[in-house]
Structures are given as C-alpha cells and as structure tokens.
C-alpha cells in the first residue's frame, strides 16, 4: 500500500520506480574482501594494512583464514540486495598445506579456490596486486624505488597478478578490474620528484605490456598517506596522464584520496569525457583517507547521481574501499554496501531530465527548489520494496541476524 503511494509520488516527478529498481538490481557493486579481516591477508604474519594505510580498532572476531573470510562475506552478502562482485587482493592467496610462495611467484592455482567459490556464489571477481605490508616495501617505496631489486620484485608481482586476473575473468566470463595502488611517497620534502615518477612510468609500461583481454587495468592515485605527507609519487596528474596516454588503462577514483574539499563526484563527468570506463573506490574520508564505513551521505548520493545522469552505469566499475576494525565487521560490510545500493536506487529516482532542462534555461531557482523538494518523497517505501523483492531483510531487520552470527561464530574466534 505505502509502496503504491510512493510509486505515484515518484511518477509525479516523472520517475519510473519499476525501472529504477530493475536498473539498480542489474548494476554490480564490488564488495572488497578486506573489510572482513582489517586488510590482513593470508600471506604474511605481520603484514596487513601498512605503508600509508591503517586500520584502527580491535573489535573481536576478525576472519583469520580463507574459510572464515568466505563465511563472513556470505553472511554479509545475504543481507544486501542487488548484484555483487567480490574484490580480492593478491595477499589473499590460498596456499596448500605447507606451501608458500612470495608475491612475485604467485600463480593462478593460488586463487583457484576463490574462483571455484565465486562460481558457486554467482559472483565475478576484481583483483589487485598488493604492494604494501611486505618486507620488500623498502623505505616506503615499491615501483618507484631506486633499488633495481625492489622494483624488479614488484614489477614481477604485478605481472603475475595481472595474468591471474585475466584467468579469473575468463573463468567467470566477466573481465576483472585489476587495480594498481602503490604507497610510494615521502614523509618530508623530496629532493627529486621527477626521477621516481620516471621509474614508476617505466615500471607500469612493463607491467601493462602484455595484451590480456579479460583484464581492465587501473591505476589509483592518492594525495598523501600517514608517513607520506609531503609527496606521493602516484599523484592524480601522474596517473590521469598515464592512463590517458595508454590504451585500456584507466584512472581509478578513490573518494578518500583528494584534498578534503575536493569531491570525486565532480571528477566523474570530467573523466567520462575521455575514458570509456570508470573504476571507483567508494570510501568515506573523515578529515583524511580514514576509510570509514560508507554511509548514505551527500557525497555518496552525488556520486551515484553523476553516474546515473551521465548515463554511465554500464561504464562505471563501482567498488567499495573501507575498513573499520572498531565495529562488528560483518555489520560494517552490510551498512556500507546497503548504503551504496540505497544511494544508487535513490539516484535513479531523481528528476534528472527536468533538472537539466532547468539548468539550460538558467532557471536556477526552480532547479534548487526541485532538488530540495524531492528529498522528502517516500524513498524509504521504495527501498523497502526493493529489499523485499531481493529477498533480503529491511532496514533494522538485518541487525539481529548479524548479532546472532556474532554470538554463534565470530565471538568464538
Ligand atoms: C589505499 C588505497 C587502496 C587500498 C586497498 C586495500 O589508500 O585506497 O585502494 O585501500 O587496495
Ligand atoms: Zn582505494
């Protein structure tokens, strides 16, 4: 009943609720595996989030291995509507009993168990080389290091990972996004900014040299990190220019990687003028790249609105990137991913055509009125119906299930 009323209310501003729900359900959101274990990974004892990224908090129950991470992910995914992918890092290699190889020697077989599981779950995979939390990060540097051995190790790692990503894409019938983020930078004022960037450029050329059809390559810039306050080798300009001058390499926008007043929602339409794909890491920076759990806030809605009004949902590769170790990790996944789904559906229900037309007529008064006055339309009723049709709990109804899981499973770890 309330859904039917909501449908009518939205029809009043020209929005088709049925179509919006269909489009939202068909748009994949890539859930990052690293929310489940504080970016620890399976391949090092004391690695994990390091080198410019940090998790804070010590909430009990983090996933410690492949079985636990899969189980937690499945629990979270079962409480979230919409189409999902899983985003893995190379540090999540699954080794046979007694086996271990370093990151430059990784092979497809170390990820075959993930692919088998993804097939069962009906998920496609995205992938990332892991250039942090490892002893070969020397003086905070990887691909831009002046040490040839260090560069070689990480180039070989990236080449190996890219091949694995290609095979994953083939196996699952959907190209894998393979995103390169490196921590390279300087705590204090550098005396050479050019040399490291030229080394990074040469390293990337080697990494991307092989033509692989089931990989979409991306490079992720960042303004600064803890311990890398003065300079970041992989800056925004560096990577946008790199991607623009290299076939099938894309700049990935992470919403936490810019100056605090700079928003990626404004960068989306700029990049869409030049790139046919647009990979994203949606995060929530609080004063810095803090990777807080994504919530239904203004910038999340603005990001989704841009994707919708630029007609770019099929070109975008929407991924999430947050990690909070201070609250229940399964709940964090559910809250953040549901918020992204919610914002996507919300964006699909806005009167974009009318608003654009008002802008073109310079009728800014009516534009502001309409933007503001659509905010209180009964969106909650549409979201509830969307969840019902997806067979997942409504808002506030999923929480008890996560608590039950905590009592039975994660608190016992
Ligand atoms: C770090 C980048 C990067 C990582 C993940 C784990 O600042 O955002 O994307 O968070 O790859
Ligand atoms: Zn990121």
Task: Explain what this protein looks like in three dimensions.
By secondary structure, the protein is of the alpha/beta class. The protein has one domain: Divalent-metal-dependent TIM barrel enzymes (TIM Barrel, Alpha-Beta Barrel). It is built from 14 helices and 12 strands. The protein has an 8-stranded parallel sheet. It has a two-stranded antiparallel ribbon with strand order 5-7. The protein is globular. The mean pLDDT is 97. Bound molecules: L-rhamnitol (RNT) and zinc ion (ZN). Residues 181, 220, 254, 281, 321 line the site of zinc ion (ZN). Zinc ion is lined by residues 181, 220, 254, 281, 321.
Features:
TIM Barrel, 14 helices, alpha/beta, about 425 residues, single chain, two-stranded antiparallel ribbon, eight-stranded parallel beta sheet, binds L-rhamnitol, binds zinc ion
Concise synopsis of the structure shown:
This protein is α/β, with parallel strands linked by helices.
| CATH topology name | TIM Barrel
Shape: globular
Number of strands: 12
**The CATH superfamily title:** Divalent-metal-dependent TIM barrel enzymes
Q: From the helix content, strand content and strand pairing, which structural class follows?
A: alpha/beta
Order of helices and strands: HHEHEHEHEEHEEHEHEEEHEHHHHH
Radius of gyration: 21 Å
Largest sheet features:
8 strands, parallel
Percent strand equals 5-15%
Regions with pLDDT < 50 over 5+ consecutive residues? none
How far apart, in Å, are the first and last alpha carbons? Answer: 45 Å
How many domain units? 1
Output mean pLDDT: 97
- Give the helix level as a range of percent: 40-55%
